[in-house]
Every structure is written in structure tokens, then in C-alpha cells.
């Protein structure tokens, strides 16, 4: 078997794994949309749909990991290709965790509905952050598919906006709980829901950092955005 044939096979395997990661991303994106719908309409049906998708997301993560391990064992890739495979693995892990956060959102919505306090709390404020987080995932997937470093940096900046939304919402919830102790239980559910939304943004940010690492070969984790911008210029 010629080296060229081996290279062509390897490229095909990489493309297949890339397609699977994008498929997983699309599934998680639909899960988050359902979670937002559950929150927006206090819908038990939408919450149940989120939870039903969870097992598919988990199985896809396991399948992709198995494919990656098989490729690494069989091909023994060199540094650049190994970096790509590791990026696929980390992106998959981040997507699965986003699915976990969407499932957590669904459980919190269910708890709020069952408490009977759904309409008396500022849940509508969360929809802005939830839509931002969903949009951030969509941009992260698109940037990952195109290996677009500029778009990745923009994602890092947008995640800061979600963090600010979260901080403002927490302050508002504290006010509600101080004014009416009866809202404490449902308010805590909303707080955990808000945290799940923030974590979805964080995982999209992680994927953006992976893009920069893949293209530039620079690990930019835990660094300020301004510092990252100056590094890759």
C-alpha cells in the first residue's frame, strides 16, 4: 500500500470524525433550543424532549471517542494531526457537557413548574442570556468547521457578555428572595438554571480556544482576550 493511499485513507477518516463532531454539535444545539423553549413557555413537554435527547448525545460522545482512539492506535499520527484529533476529542467533551447543562435546565424548569411559582419570578430575563448562549454555540460550530481564528476571538468576547448577564440576574434574584422568602426555593432553581446557561457559554468559549490552538499552535486558555488578540496578530 502506497504512502499516498495511506494518506488519502487517513484524510477520509479525519473528515468522517469531523462530520460526526458537527452532527453531535447540531444535536446539542437542538437540545439547547428545546431547553430555551421549555423556559420561555414553562413547557413540560419541551423539558421532556430535552431529556429524551440526552441519551443520544451521550452515546455519540462514546462513539466518537472510540473512533478517535482507533485512529490514533492505527495511524500513530504526527504532531499536527495528533493535535487535530485531540481537538476533536476536547470539542466532543465540551459538546457533551453542554448537553448536560441543557438537561439540567430542563430539570430546573420542571421543578419551577411544580413549585407553582413560575409566573412570579423574573424568568424572562434569562431568555436573553439563553439566546446568547445558543447563538454562541452555533458560532463556535461554524468557526470550528472553518477554523476561523477571527470568529473564535469574537466568541471569546461575546462570552463576557453572557457572564455580565449572569451577574446581573443573580443580583436581581437576591432582591426577590430578600423581599419574599416564599420565592427562595423557586429562585434557587432559577439560579441553577442561570448557571447552566453561563456554563454553555463557557463551553463554547473552550471550543473557540481550541480553534486558536489548532490554527496558531498557541494555548490561550486562561488568558485575557486582549492578550490573545495581540498574540495572534
In short:
The chain has 233 residues and is mainly alpha-helical.
What does this structure look like?
The structure is a single chain. This protein has 233 residues and is mainly α. The protein contains seven helices and no strands. Helix 1 (3-41) runs antiparallel to helix 4 and helix 4 packs parallel to helix 6. The chain is globular, with a radius of gyration of 20 Å.
Q: Count the helices. How many? A: 7
Remind me, CATH topology?
A: Methane Monooxygenase Hydroxylase, Chain G, domain 1
How many distinct domains?
1
Could you name the CATH class?
Answer: Mainly Alpha
Q: How far apart lie the N and C ends?
A: 42 Å
The CATH superfamily is identified as Phosphate transport system protein phou homolog 2, domain 2
What's the helix and strand layout?
Layout lengths: L2 H39 L2 H32 L3 H37 L8 H23 L2 H31 L4 H33 L8 H8 L1
Relevant terms:
233 residues; mainly alpha; Methane Monooxygenase Hydroxylase, Chain G, domain 1; 7 helices; globular
Amino acid at each position: 500500500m502506497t504512502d499516498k493511499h495511506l494518506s488519502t485513507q487517513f484524510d477520509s477518516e479525519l473528515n468522517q470524525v469531523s462530520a460526526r463532531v458537527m452532527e453531535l454539535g447540531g444535536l446539542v444545539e437542538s437540545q439547547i433550543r428545546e431547553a430555551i423553549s421549555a423556559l420561555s413557555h414553562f413547557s413540560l413537554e419541551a423539558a421532556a424532549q430535552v431529556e429524551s435527547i440526552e441519551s443520544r448525545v451521550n452515546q455519540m460522545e462514546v462513539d466518537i471517542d472510540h473512533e478517535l482512539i482507533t485512529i490514533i492506535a492505527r495511524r500513530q499520527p504526527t504532531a499536527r494531526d495528533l493535535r487535530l484529533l485531540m481537538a476533536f476529542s476536547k470539542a466532543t467533551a465540551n459538546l457533551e457537557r453542554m448537553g448536560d447543562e441543557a438537561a439540567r435546565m430542563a430539570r430546573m424548569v420542571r421543578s419551577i413548574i411544580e413549585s407553582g411559582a413560575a409566573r412570579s419570578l423574573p424568568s424572562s430575563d434569562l431568555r436573553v442570556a439563553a439566546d446568547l448562549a445558543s447563538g454562541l454555540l452555533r458560532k463556535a460550530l461554524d468557526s470550528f468547521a472553518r477554523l476561523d481564528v477571527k470568529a473564535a476571538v469574537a466568541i471569546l468576547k461575546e462570552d463576557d457578555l453572557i457572564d455580565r448577564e449572569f451577574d446581573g440576574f443573580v443580583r436581581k434574584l437576591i432582591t426577590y428572595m430578600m423581599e419574599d422568602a416564599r420565592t427562595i426555593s423557586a429562585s434557587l432553581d432559577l439560579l441553577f438554571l442561570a448557571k447552566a446557561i453561563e456554563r454553555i457559554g463557557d463551553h463554547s468559549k473552550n471550543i473557540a480556544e481550541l480553534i486558536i490552538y489548532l490554527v496558531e499552535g498557541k494555548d490561550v486558555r486562561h488568558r485575557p482576550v486582549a492578550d490573545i488578540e495581540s498574540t495572534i496578530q
